[in-house]
Design goal:
With 339 residues, the chain is of the alpha+beta class. Helices cover 36% and strands 18% of the residues.
């Protein structure tokens, strides 16, 4: 597995065309993407952060899928366009676990920059208050701002995306600090026990994967199917889900954005395959659940068409498109003409 930072590519483009790298990381203005920044949901500074109550959005389902993708991609950009390539080599379960144990530490300056955003993700969960209190104590300790978050925040990130994405009613999406809470909700939806739930759970390969869907893995227990999780519904489990943003069949991969991946909101490149007459599916054996959004599908290259990627191309022009193409992340071939 290798990680590379797309922001470095963008920085090279910036040097060529006279823009600062920081412009790439800024969130878009409301007239380009109407979003309440997660950092707006907290007050104060790291070590003394408190929650500012703000409602979640409830929107018509016909626009939710695209909004989920646009939000995830914008947060990916805010965290610096980190890409985690899982297509190059196959790694063992032991190697994967070892990599998780060696979580990267952000620099103090980067930790300070993103602290309010991660705290804002937590605020939309029922447990966000005490988790933020616990983190304030850690920041006040010897590690200061360089200290890692005490609790993994990947489920909080997904919860914020769904809150801001239009699934504000918990009967649609159960926001929580652990992924298994909404995975179980999607399983109940499949079993006709959660009729208003926005996602329905499938085994990998049993339904077509579309941008806006979720792909979920499990470590402890290491589930291999929805049926195995169904036997332990309600029990705690170490799980993780990412938001699909692009299907790239020609390169045999699926692109997905997740939180707390290498300490950031990152884009994963997942190996995928499609047998004759079957759907494109990831081949990572750690993935056990596909949560399908109950909304009409959209184009497979939704990542490329997101406001963040279009703004990137508009700001930096054809040079950044060439470099993005070289990084095999996005095409963006027609973006400059729509600036």
């Amino acid at each position: 597995m290798r990680t590379f930072i797309l922001a470095l590519v963008v920085a090279a483009c910036a040097a060529a065309v006279g823009h600062a790298q920081s412009a790439v990381r800024d969130r878009l203005p409301p007239d380009r993407l109407d979003v309440v920044s997660p950092s707006v949901r907290v007050l104060g500074t790291p070590g003394n952060l408190t929650i500012r109550q703000a409602p979640c959005r409830t929107l018509p389902m016909d626009g939710v899928r695209r909004r989920i993708i646009d939000l995830a991609v914008q947060e990916w950009g805010f965290f610096g366009f980190t890409v985690v390539d899982q297509t190059a080599v196959e790694i063992s379960t032991d190697q994967r676990s070892s990599q998780r144990r060696r979580r990267p530490r952000l620099s103090p300056s980067e930790s300070a920059r993103v602290a309010g955003s991660i705290a804002g993700y937590w605020t939309v969960t029922p447990e966000g208050g005490w988790i933020l209190d616990a983190q304030n104590e850690i920041w006040q300790g010897p590690g200061g701002l360089a200290a890692r978050w005490r609790y993994p925040w990947s489920a909080a990130f997904i919860s914020w995306v769904m809150c801001e994405g239009g699934l504000g009613d918990t009967s649609q999406f159960r926001r929580a600090v652990a992924h298994h809470a909404y995975i179980d909700q999607a399983i109940r939806a499949r079993d006709a026990g959660a009729v208003r739930a926005a996602f329905t759970a499938y085994d990998i390969g049993d339904a077509s994967i579309v941008p806006g869907d979720l792909l979920c893995s499990a470590r402890r227990p290491a589930y291999r199917s929805i049926a195995e999780r169904r036997l332990q519904m309600g029990d705690g489990a170490r799980t993780h889900c990412d938001i699909v943003v692009k299907l790239d069949a020609p390169r045999s991969r699926i692109l997905a954005v997740g939180g707390n991946v290498r300490g950031a909101v990152s884009l994963k490149l997942l190996r995928a395959a499609r047998a004759p007459g079957q759907y494109l599916r990831p081949v990572d054996g750690a993935l056990f659940a596909h949560l399908k959004l109950r909304a009409e599908p959209i184009e497979q290259d939704a990542l490329d068409r997101s406001p963040t990627m279009r703004a990137l191309a508009c700001d930096f022009g054809l040079q950044v498109i060439d470099r993005l193409a070289a990084a095999n992340v996005a095409a963006l071939a027609d973006s400059p003409s729509r600036c």
